[in-house]
Design goal:
This protein has 9 helices and 11 strands. It is of the alpha+beta class. The chain folds into 2 domains: 169 residues, Roll (Nuclear Transport Factor 2, Chain: A), CATH 3.10.450; 132 residues, no CATH class. Strand 5 and strand 6 form a beta hairpin. Helix 5 packs antiparallel against helix 6, helix 5 crosses helix 7 and helix 6 crosses helix 9. It is globular, with a radius of gyration of 21 Å.
Length: 309
């Protein structure tokens, strides 16, 4: 059996080799490896059904194209929201016995704080340190509470980068990912600088089909839970917003190495308004129009068939 120190050095070298082969930053792969293996410990723990994977990592579960990098883990918690209780759960997850992966956790480094940038919503941020050989990895886990997930979460597998056993976790539905990003877009208004949300929503609309009724219900539940009114008149759809955010969009594309995303931010927002506008109004028919059952066809648009009332 390989000694722990040798396992860590071997894993680090394999990550370096992968970074060179794929022309990706080593630190990006190192961070992903640490997040992946922490989630594997979570999946093997007694807490696996108390957390639901969301955020950028859940996009990888769906084989999302041109995945953007992320440096933290986002979860929905179905547990106590007291910082000391969440910290203890994280320490218990660290202590789960798994196949040797070279990572050494520091339970003493665990720190918990309430998330303040979205102070109207309940959330805990956990920070801690992990070591791989001589590399120190700073981990962040953001845990939200109280949000609705529709349709219900399902267990899915997170891809691994070195062929290790894969985490199998409860995961957000695509509909609720869309709903939460749309609510964030409405909440931040003209001050919105979250270009990643615009990209993710745009890519979701190009890659996946959606049942209109199911998506509209996910949006309704999320907006109601967060006490936000739905309106098609979002600041993000305005010409002024589009013009002022083009530079931010350009910087985001370069930083995230998303060459396939449109150069024009106006093109992105126009596509998103076509996708999300009808959902915000719950597909209300205009006077004289027949009620229809709507379905979004990826990269094509909404299609409706008449239904009998």
């Amino acid at each position: 059996m390989m000694a722990p120190a040798n396992i860590a050095a071997s894993v680090r070298q394999r990550l370096l080799n992968l970074a060179r082969a794929e022309n990706r930053p080593f630190n990006e792969l190192l961070q992903y490896y640490a997040m992946e293996r922490f989630l594997y410990r979570l999946s093997r723990s007694g807490h696996s059904e108390r957390f639901i994977l969301k955020g950028a990592l859940v996009l990888r579960v769906w084989s999302f194209p041109a995945q953007r990098s992320t440096m933290d883990i986002d979860l929905l918690g179905r547990t106590s929201n007291r910082p000391e209780d969440v910290s203890e759960i994280i320490r218990e997850i660290m202590d789960v016995e798994v196949e040797a992966d070279g990572l050494v956790y520091s339970p003493a480094s665990v720190r918990a704080e309430r998330i303040t940038e979205d102070a109207e919503y309940d959330g805990i941020r956990i920070r801690f340190e992990v070591r791989l050989d001589t590399a120190r990895i700073f981990m962040q886990v953001d845990i939200g509470f109280g949000d609705a997930v529709h349709p219900a979460p399902v267990v899915a597998e997170l891809p691994t980068i070195l062929g290790d056993p894969a985490p199998r976790l409860l995961c957000y539905s695509r509909e609720s990912v869309v709903a939460e990003k749309l609510e964030a877009m409405a909440r931040h208004g003209e001050l919105n600088s979250r270009m990643k949300d615009f990209y993710d929503l745009w890519q979701l609309s190009k890659q996946y089909d959606f049942d209109g009724e199911t998506l509209a219900e996910a949006v309704r539940l999320t907006f109601e839970r967060r006490e936000r009114a739905r309106s098609r008149s979002l600041a993000a759809f305005s010409s002024t917003f589009i013009e002022t955010k083009q530079i931010q969009w350009d910087a985001f594309r370069r930083r995230s190495r998303l060459g396939q995303a449109p150069d024009s931010f106006r093109e992105v927002v126009t596509d998103l308004e076509a996708f999300l506008g009808p959902v915000l109004t719950n597909f209300e028919p205009a006077d004289g129009q027949q009620v229809r059952r709507w379905r979004w066809i990826a990269a094509k648009g909404w299609e409706g068939r008449e239904i009998s009332l």
